[in-house]
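Rotation project, supervised by the postdoc (A.L.). Task for the rotation student: set up a whole-complex structure prediction and record inputs and outputs verbatim in this book. Inputs entered:
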Amino acid sequence: DGGITQSPKYLFRKEGQNVTLSCEQNLNHDAMYWYRQDPGQGLRLIYYSQIVNDFQKGDIAEGYSVSREKKESFPLTVTSAQKNPTAFYLCASSIDVARETQYFGPGTRLLVL
Amino acid sequence: GNSVTQMEGPVTLSEEAFLTINCTYTATGYPSLFWYVQYPGEGLQLLLKATKADDKGSNKGFEATYRKETTSFHLEKGSVQVSDSAVYFCALSNGSGNTGKLIFGQGTTLQVKP
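Outputs recorded:
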């Protein structure tokens, strides 16, 4: 079955530590996205990638970094510079940026120890 | 800039009641409009969409009509079930420029009681 997988489901970060969230898709989609969701709020865009080896900052990129070395993979690193990382992180993909429908993974919940 | 406003929740209904969740938007150009649903602890699932004015999106008994004159995309269902309990998000596409960016409302929680 085609879809988007995210791992781990839960992730714990210590102070000063960088952590990486995995996002993999087998839908053959060109575009991929990372969103952050806080309780009672909508989704906010962190980074997006239109094609392999290319990515752009979204609305809240500070304290995060990404890479897009393979079409199917778009990992997100939460760096120590992100002072309030506790949130639910959602990865999404679309066929391309012109095809606007996005399909979401199951999410990773990041907690700070 | 573009924005989406949803009615505040939680919305609490009895099973088989009629559902309306209001969504209004501000946008330049001709965005597409979406409703996504999120069940507890899960990611978002596309519920329905409409790509131009007067289009009606529908799925699983839910409907929404793209109303350009009132800049609205209200979600409706004639008879809700307990299994419809979830958070519902209205969203619009950027509409101009090829970024693929979606702008989401804050979400509306629906609780359906037996």
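Student's summary: Chain B has a mean pLDDT of 92.
Supervisor addendum: Chain B has no helices and twelve strands.
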